[in-house]
Amino acid sequence: MAEKQDPIRFGIMGCAEIARKISRAILLSPNAALVAVASRSIDKASQFAARNKLPENVKLYGSYGEVLDDPSVDAVYVPLPTALHLQWALAAAQKGKHLLLEKPTALDVKVLEEMLESCRRNGLQFMDGSMWYHHPRTAKMKELLSDSHVFGRLKAIHSSSSYHPPPHFLENDVRVKPELDALGALGDAGWYCIGAILWSMNQKLPTTVTALPDTAKNSAGVILTCSASMLWDDEETVATFFCSFLAHETMSLAVSASNGTLNVDDFIIPYEETAAGFSYTSGAKFTDLHIGWTVKPQHVRVETKLPQEALMIQEFSGLVRGVKYLGARPDTRWAETSRCTQLVMDAVKNSIDDGYKAIKM
């Protein structure tokens, strides 16, 4: 029984900036341990370890393959550029390593499905690195949205994810280079918007997806700004989103239903690490003479002992532990969530490339 309490041992493949946050999350998670970090050179791995004050027992490697060859590693976190995901995800699966893959997961759904099939074939847990799903606020919002008396039927959803980085980002960052992350803002920021919309719709794919003609690209053809609309025919629900590297920071989600509305301004990264909030209104009407409202928004605050990235690691590690020690099958819910997001992202990209025509799903 003692062995079954052992933490899930992580290796990190790549020292991107986001890996700093995840290394801390692994160290904070009660059922995970960081045992190895790899970069393209041992010097970079050593610099990463020193900068982040990693424990001395964390092994440092000068190539990604060395992490996969390490028998002490149960799972790998892969924050490499999207163009490299297929190569290293397949290599990880072949070595029996459970896979936490940074978003966007792939350049298109065919590539993602190849990775997911390799994980399925080898009995491995898959999850992408969308942290906000794991915050307790997200579960509380879902609880309210699912209450037909409070909200009724969903009618409209809007999400926005944008930020305005310094000039050197737009010139040199991985996310604006077509050979590394060809999806640009659509992949980096739009992934969250699409994911939040599909989360609101319980992962049901829209009937049609149409990009709007406001796309901006850099000289290499990488998307810097785009937006799109989605329609669900049966539900008579519409959604829109905006994502950009050229606008002020936004991380908003607004859901309008037949009897209520929900709004959150920081759904991707909460304003605070230890708590997060949102507001909702149910059954509101205008007062006589339309000089006010009969109901004011209710503000909900949800506290958490661990930051959302550590909760993601904790949940992923729990699933891996079930597979490793209890004979459980991998939870495919997370793979399907990634696949649905990728399908809609592909449709947006296809609509842009096809002159903003509607794409049937």
Q: Tell me the CATH architecture of the largest domain.
A: 2-Layer Sandwich
Under CATH, the topology of the largest domain can be stated as Dihydrodipicolinate Reductase, domain 2
Low-confidence stretches: none
Secondary-structure element order, as H and E?
EHEHEHEHEHEHEHHHEEEEEEEEHHE
Report how far apart the termini are.
Answer: 48 Å
Number of alpha- plus pi-helical segments: 11
Helix % is 25-40%
Strand content: 15-25%
Number of domains: 2
> What would you call the shape?
globular
Rg, Å, rounded: 21 Å
Instruction: Decide which structural class fits the backbone.
Output: alpha/beta
- Global mean pLDDT: 97
Largest sheet: 10 strands, mixed
- Assigned CATH superfamily of the largest domain: Dihydrodipicolinate Reductase, domain 2
Family: Belongs to the Gfo/Idh/MocA family.
InterPro entries: Gfo/Idh/MocA-like_OxRdtase_N, GFO_IDH_MocA-like_dom, NAD(P)-bd_dom_sf
GO molecular function, one term: nucleotide binding
Protein name: Gfo/Idh/MocA-like oxidoreductase N-terminal domain-containing protein
Task: Write structural notes for this entry.
- With 361 residues, this protein is of the alpha/beta class.
- It contains 11 helices and 16 strands.
- Strand 5, helix 5 (109-121) and strand 6 form a beta-alpha-beta unit.
- The protein has 2 domains: 3-131 and 309-335, NAD(P)-binding Rossmann-like Domain (Rossmann fold), CATH 3.40.50.720; 133-306 and 342-360, 2-Layer Sandwich (Dihydrodipicolinate Reductase, domain 2).
- Helices cover 34% and strands 25% of the residues.
- The model has no long low-confidence stretch (mean pLDDT 97).
- The strands form 2 sheets. Strands 7, 8, 9, 10, 11, 12, 13, 14, 15 and 16 form a 10-stranded mixed beta sheet that branches. A 6-stranded parallel beta sheet has the order 3-2-1-4-5-6, with helices on both faces.
- Residues 140-262 form the GFO/IDH/MocA-like oxidoreductase domain.
- One of its GO terms (molecular function) is nucleotide binding.
- Pfam families: GFO_IDH_MocA, GFO_IDH_MocA_C3.
- Belongs to the Gfo/Idh/MocA family.
- Residues 8-127 form the Gfo/Idh/MocA-like oxidoreductase N-terminal domain.
